[in-house]
Amino acid sequence: MIMPARYIIGLCLFLMLSQHTIAEVMTADKANIRLQHLSQEIFKSPQDTRLLLQRGDIYFQLHEFEKAVHDYSVALSIKPKLAEAYFGRGMALGRLGNVREGIADLSIFLERRPDSSIGYTKRGVRYLWIGDRDNAAKDFHKAIALNPQNAEAHDDLGVIYAQKGELKTALSHFKQTITHDPEYQKGYHNLALGYFLSEDASSALTYVNQAIQLQPNNRNSLMLKAEILLALGKKNEALLIREEAEYLPEGNWSEQAPTPENNK
Length: 264
Prior knowledge:
This protein has helices at about 5-10, 30-45, 50-60, 65-80, 85-95, 100-110, 115-130, 135-145, 150-165, 165-180, 185-195, 200-215, 220-230, 235-245. By secondary structure, it is mainly α.
């Protein structure tokens, strides 16, 4: 099977990072109600860093990253050693495009919380965003050493091995991802793409179908399925799926690399 050049050259479909965020997932309505309550409480107790962290987390979930940075910064002005505020601000700065500043904050967090698997994972993601695969890989390996069941770290480490052409190792990590988190849609997608790049279209089809079962309207997974079907000689079915996918929005991954203005 001849592999399409766009999959070999641009492994961008792998780089859909990541599924976990700071705050507990809630609907926008509930989040706004919670914001109103917290703002009232902060007005009464402006020095309460716990309240500031909670509001910063909700702003982060709502993608209001500048407001999140503000709340975390205020919390740090009150308690300069507050590790959780460095974590939150590092996450939000990265999403604003200030990736290197975000890495600096996450590094301070890890100095205070060296046993945080998620901390190493999130810093590793941001190293990927600036193209520093070596430091990213170190962070993902550390995250997995701290928590072997960290599905996100396995997935992101698989990304790096796939980019290096070490597909067997990449597939191993993608399999770990879906073993530890069977609902991790991106893991199935990446596993399918890994098999496709390994010229095993039949296995690729199996896993892309599982990815689509978890997210039926995921454009990236549907487009990948169309390519797999073409490789299997199922042209008509592939064209139908591609036509359907082209009208869908881009993949709804919860954390993607920003387009930074000042992360150089």
